[in-house]
């Protein structure tokens, strides 16, 4: 039984963001060593350095090796994933670790193959307009993160500490942009987005946004103005900007960009134009970042 999807649907009742843990498996067995590994049924069952199958039971190990031998290299080499991992393809080593984690969580062969394709196979990166989007991190960073989020989405709120941690842990490599994607079923999400753009005009977007997340359960015109006051905004200018057509158009532009990108959930995160499809925890996201950096 694998974990339920963690993405928030665009319509219908809100679900729980954090997925249920996978069913317990048999006690972990020690990973085979190169010397003890054998070939069975034509499959290569010798592990490259850095791959630990200690969390997999015997059945899951068979699934792992079936996928590792059946999937091709993610480095473009004409060999299997496991064979290329033993050569000089560091990305294939990372991909094998990813396969082991997905198999341990109960994903099927086809689901693992799909996840590998989304994360490692060549795709045309999504072009996203961030010219007006607020940014934090290193402007010259190699990794560009673009988040689409809704201020009344609880899943978006839970994702913010993860993103903050990533920016802090990769100070030289990451820059993060924010784009507004208010959902129609959230009464105050669009007003909150417009207020955040107004705060951006006064150079206090991130401070204002942090307080919006803190007050997520009570957003409304009065509370949003209170947040503006707490952030130290010029309230007269703040009110004027919120009511302006220019700011309404800016939020609508972000929303339209999300629709054009095919967004199906909030939050949605792109890493160098590739949609992030893994769990929304810091360890999973760090693995993607390291893959992009070639670590």
Description:
Strand 8 (268-271) and strand 9 (274-275) form a beta hairpin. The protein has helices spanning 58-70, 81-85, 90-104, 109-120, 154-169, 189-201, 205-214, 221-231, 235-242, 245-261, 282-293, and strands spanning 8-9, 39-40, 43-44, 135-137, 143-149, 174-180, 265-266, 268-271, 274-275. It is 45% helix and 11% strand. The protein starts with 7 loop residues before the first strand and ends with a helix. The protein is of the alpha+beta class. Mean pLDDT is 87; it is low at 1-40. The protein folds into 2 domains: 8-122, no CATH class; 135-282, 3-Layer(aba) Sandwich (Glutaredoxin). Strands 4-6-5-8-9 form a 5-stranded mixed beta sheet. The protein has a two-stranded antiparallel ribbon with strand order 1-7. It has a two-stranded antiparallel ribbon with strand order 2-3.
């Amino acid at each position: 039984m694998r974990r339920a999807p963690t993405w928030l649907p665009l319509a219908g009742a809100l679900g729980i963001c954090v997925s249920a843990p996978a069913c317990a498996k048999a006690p972990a067995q020690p990973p085979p060593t190169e010397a003890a590994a054998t070939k069975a049924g034509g499959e290569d069952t010798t592990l490259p350095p850095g791959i630990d199958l200690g969390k997999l039971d015997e059945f899951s190990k068979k699934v792992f090796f079936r996928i590792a031998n059946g999937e091709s290299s993610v480095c473009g080499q004409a060999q299997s994933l496991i064979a290329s991992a033993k050569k000089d393809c560091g990305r294939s080593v990372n991909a094998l670790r990813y396969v082991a984690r997905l198999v341990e969580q109960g994903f099927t062969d086809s689901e693992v193959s799909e996840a590998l394709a989304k994360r490692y196979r060549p795709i045309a990166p999504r072009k996203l307009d961030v010219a007006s989007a607020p940014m934090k991190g290193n402007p010259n960073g190699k990794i560009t993160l673009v988040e689409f989020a809704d201020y009344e989405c609880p899943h978006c709120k839970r994702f913010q500490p993860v993103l903050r941690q990533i920016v802090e842990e990769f100070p030289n490599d990451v820059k993060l942009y924010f784009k507004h994607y208010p959902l129609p079923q959230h009464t105050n999400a669009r007003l909150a987005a417009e207020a955040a753009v107004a705060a951006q005009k006064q150079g206090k977007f991130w401070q204002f946004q942090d307080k919006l997340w803190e007050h997520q359960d009570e957003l409304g015109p009065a509370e949003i103005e209170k947040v503006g006051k707490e952030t130290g905004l010029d309230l007269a200018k703040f009110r004027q900007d919120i009511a302006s057509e220019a700011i309404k158009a800016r939020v609508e532009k972000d929303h339209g960009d999300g629709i054009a990108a095919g967004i199906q959930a909030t939050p949605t995160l792109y890493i160098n134009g590739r949609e992030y499809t893994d769990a929304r925890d810091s360890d999973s996201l760090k693995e993607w970042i390291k893959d992009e950096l070639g670590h």
